[in-house]
Amino acid sequence: MGRAKQTMKFATKAIHAGQEPDPTTGAIMTPIYQTSTYWQKSPGDNKGYEYSRGTNPTRKALEDCLAALENAKFGLAFSSGMGATDAVMKLLQPGDEVITGNDLYGGSYRIFTKIFANYGIKFHFLDLSDQNIINSYVNDKTKLIWIETPTNPTMQVVDIKAVGEISKAHNLTFVVDNTFASPYLQNPMDMGADIVMHSVTKYIGGHSDVVMGALMMNDEELYKKLWFIYNACGATPGPMDSFLVLRGIKTLHLRMKAHCENGRQIAKFLKDHPKVEKIYWPGFTDHPNHEVAKKQMRDFGGMISIVLKGADLQETFRIASSFKVFSLAESLGGVESLINHPVSMTHGSIPKAEREKAGVVDNLLRLSVGVEDIEDLLDDLKQALS
Question: pTM score > 0.90 for this model?
Answer without folding.
Answer: yes
